[in-house]
Design brief:
single chain, alpha/beta, Rossmann fold, eight-stranded mixed sheet, four-stranded antiparallel sheet, 14 helices, 15 strands, binds magnesium ion
C-alpha cells in the first residue's frame, strides 16, 4: 500500500515523532461490553517497541478513564495517556496523572444527570456512565434501537437547551451510540495542541488515528496547522512558487483552561478561582532528549496546570457518580485554596520539581498568546487517519477499514525500528 509505505518511510526519516492514538475502535474493535475491548499481543508488542525508542512520544488519547488505561496499558511506562477526552493526562515515563479539570466547578453534573436519568427511565436498556469529569449516556444496548436513537436526539436537544438556559461551560459530544457531556475546552483537539506545544521545537512527524467524532477534534487541531506566513493569508503571493508542504508550521496556542459553570447559584469561590488560577502552559518546554532523559524521575516536562498536579485526587479515585458529584465542591475549593494559601509556594516548588513549570505571566496573556512555531514540522509529515467506512465525513487525510490496519501501521513503524 503506497500510503503505508510513505507513512513508514517518513516515520523512519524523522527524528522526533508524535504518535497520537485513540483506543476504542482504533486500536481495538468496538465490542458490546466495553470491558472486553482488550489490546492484542501484536498491538502491545508494537507499542512496547515504539515507546522504547527515545525518538518517539506516544500518547493514547482516549475517552476511557485512567483506571482502564492503566490496567491494560500502564505496564508500558513509556506511553503517555490522555483519559476522559483530555480531562486527565499522564506523561510518558511518569506514574502521575494531572487533572486538568481540578480547578473547574463540576456542579453542572447534577443537572446533566437529571436529564440522563429521565431518558434512561424512559428508554429500556440504556445506561449512564459516570466519570470524574464527564457523564455519558449509552444507548448501544437499548432494547429498541430505533427508540434509542430517537431518544438520543431528544436528549441532546434537552441538554443543549439546559446548557443554554444556565450558560454552562460544557460541551455535548455525540459519540457512537452515546452522548457525553464534559467541560468546555477539554477535548482531544486541545490535548493534542498541548502535546504539540510541549514538543514544538523538536517534532517533525505526527501520526494520529481515531474512529469517531471526538477524534475529529484531534484531526481538526492537526489540520489547522498552517505553513509559516500562511495563517494570515499574508504570504499567499510570496510563497506561490514554494512547496507549501515543505514550509514549517505554526499553530494557534492551546485554549486556557479553568472555565467553570456560570449558572446562577454557582459557588462564588469558583468564580474567584476561575479568575485567579487559569492554568499556565510552560513556554519553556525542554527538548525531547532532555524530557526522555528524565523520564525515570517523577515526571518529565509536561502540560502545566497551576494547583493541579494530580496526586491522590486523581489516582485511583472512585469513578462512581456519588463520589464524583459529592467531591466536586470540595475539590474546587481545595484547588482554589491551594492557589491562594501559603502552601502555594510549596505547590509551585513541587510543580517545578516535577517539571510542571509555572508561568504566572501566562495568566495575564491567556487570551492573547502568540501562535506557536513548529520549526521542524511540515504538513506532509502529518498523517491523520480515520478508521471507518468510506463516505464518512472527516478531517482526516487518510481512511482505513479497521483497527487491524492502524495496528499494521504501528507494526510497520516498529518493525524497522532501531535504525
Ligand atoms: Mg474511538
Amino acid at each position: 500500500m503506497d500510503k503505508l509505505d510513505t507513512l513508514v518511510r517518513t516515520y523512519h526519516d524523522a527524528s522526533t515523532r508524535l504518535l497520537l492514538l485513540d483506543y476504542d475502535g482504533t486500536l481495538t474493535p468496538i465490542v458490546k461490553d466495553p470491558e472486553a475491548a482488550l489490546p492484542s499481543k501484536e498491538l502491545l508488542n508494537a507499542l512496547h517497541i515504539l515507546t522504547e525508542d527515545r525518538r518517539n512520544v506516544v500518547f493514547i488519547i482516549s475517552g476511557r478513564d485512567e483506571n482502564f488505561l492503566s490496567k491494560h496499558l500502564g505496564h508500558l511506562r513509556g506511553i503517555g495517556f490522555s483519559a476522559e477526552h483530555g480531562c486527565f493526562v499522564k506523561q510518558p515515563g511518569s506514574d502521575q496523572w494531572a487533572n486538568l479539570t481540578k480547578d473547574m466547578d463540576l456542579g453542572w453534573m447534577r443537572k446533566v444527570v437529571e436529564i440522563f436519568e429521565y431518558y434512561t427511565e424512559h428508554t429500556p436498556g440504556t445506561s449512564i456512565e459516570h466519570k470524574k469529569s464527564s457523564i455519558t449516556w449509552h444507548y448501544r444496548n437499548a432494547a429498541d434501537p430505533d427508540l434509542g436513537s430517537t431518544q438520543a436526539d431528544q436528549c441532546k436537544v434537552s441538554l443543549e437547551n439546559m446548557i443554554k438556559e444556565h450558560n454552562l461551560a460544557v460541551d455535548v459530544l455525540v459519540g457512537k451510540k452515546n452522548l457525553e457531556v464534559r467541560p468546555f475546552a477539554i477535548n482531544k483537539g486541545e490535548i493534542v495542541k498541548r502535546i504539540l506545544h510541549q514538543h514544538a521545537e523538536d517534532v517533525d512527524f505526527v501520526f494520529s488515528a481515531g474512529d469517531d467524532k471526538t477524534d475529529e477534534d484531534m484531526f481538526r487541531a492537526l489540520a489547522s496547522l498552517e505553513p509559516v506566513g500562511e495563517q494570515n493569508g499574508e504570504a499567499s503571493t510570496s510563497t506561490l512558487t514554494e512547496d507549501i508542504d515543505s514550509l514549517p508550521l505554526v499553530m494557534s496556542p492551546p485554549a486556557p483552561l479553568g472555565l467553570g459553570w456560570t449558572a446562577e447559584g454557582a459557588p462564588t469561590s469558583t468564580q474567584s478561582s476561575i479568575h485567579q488560577s487559569p492554568p499556565a502552559i510552560s513556554t519553556t518546554s525542554p527538548p525531547l532528549a532532555h524530557s526522555k532523559a528524565s523520564s525515570s524521575e517523577a515526571s518529565s516536562s509536561s502540560i502545566s496546570l497551576q494547583s493541579s498536579v494530580s496526586t491522590q485526587d486523581s489516582i485511583g479515585a472512585s469513578t462512581s457518580a456519588d463520589n464524583a458529584t459529592t467531591t466536586t465542591s470540595s475539590a474546587t475549593s481545595a484547588a482554589s485554596s491551594a492557589f491562594e494559601s501559603p502552601s502555594h509556594a510549596h505547590d509551585q516548588q513541587q510543580q517545578q520539581q516535577l517539571g510542571l513549570a509555572v508561568d504566572v505571566d501566562e495568566q495575564a496573556n491567556a487570551g492573547s498568546r502568540p501562535p506557536v512555531q513548529l520549526p521542524k514540522l511540515r504538513k506532509k509529515n502529518v498523517f491523520t487517519t480515520l478508521v471507518g467506512p468510506s463516505g464518512t465525513e472527516t478531517l482526516a487525510t487518510w481512511r482505513v477499514d479497521g483497527p487491524e490496519m492502524v495496528i499494521g501501521c504501528l507494526v510497520g513503524m516498529a518493525s524497522r525500528g532501531g535504525d
